[in-house]
Amino acid sequence: MELIDALHRGEWVHGINSDVSVMLLATEDSCHRLNTLMPSQKTERHAILKSMLGHIGENFTIHSPFRCDFGKHIRIGDNFVGNYNLTILDEAPVNIGNRVFIGPNVSIYTITHALDPEQRAEGIMRAKPVTIADDVWICGNVTILPGVTIGRGAVIAAGSVVTTDIPPMHLAMGVPCRATRPITDTDRVNTTI
């Protein structure tokens, strides 16, 4: 669809469109079906997610509630955990690597609206992709804004608002989120069991 292609290119568009509304409603229905299933109904839950998302790898858990806009623009690698109340607004691609942990109440946004109130009311919007590399841990209550890339092995502290790219193997935190220090071998812990 031309509108979605323009959004994927990061262009400003008139986003209110009956075809888009139909697609959003279909995905909302799929999310609703997923969120009404018991957690123990793994086969049915996995089938919904595999049909709704663009790609999801092996060995994944997505707790309910889960919500997304289109689903088909989301690609998730292997060994993924998405905790309760994960929201992904995927008007542009969202690429999530392998072994990514996402805490509860995390929001990932690709869409933004015009600042001018008249244009906003007309539905003027644009989208930018979000990339989360392998081995990232996003703690609870984090918001990731359009156009952000989070590098391999990074940790985003709870409550952060990620507005710019985060380098690999860094602990990042704050509003706005900033890399505070590298993650090194001194961060390894000893286990007792």
What does this 3D model show about the protein?
The chain has 193 residues and is an alpha/beta fold. The protein is 22% helix and 28% strand. It is built from 4 helices and 20 strands. The strands form 4 sheets. Strands 3-6-9-14-17-19-20 form a 7-stranded mixed beta sheet, with no helix packed on it. Strand 19 and strand 20 form a beta hairpin. Helix 2 runs antiparallel to helix 3. The longest helix has 19 residues. It is globular. The chain starts with a helix and ends in an 11-residue tail after the last strand. 28% of the residues are buried.
Structural class: alpha/beta
Which strand order spans the largest sheet, edge to edge or round the barrel? 3-6-9-14-17-19-20
Which range does the strand content fall in?
Answer: 25-35%
Low-pLDDT runs: none
Report helical residue fraction.
10-25%
Question: What's the mean pLDDT score?
Answer: 97
> How many beta-strand elements?
20
| SSE string, helices as H and strands as E | HEHHEEEEEEEEEEHEEEEEEEEE
Supply Rg.
17 Å
Biggest sheet overview:
7 strands, mixed
The total of helices stands at 4
Specify the overall morphology. Answer: globular
Distance between the termini: 53 Å
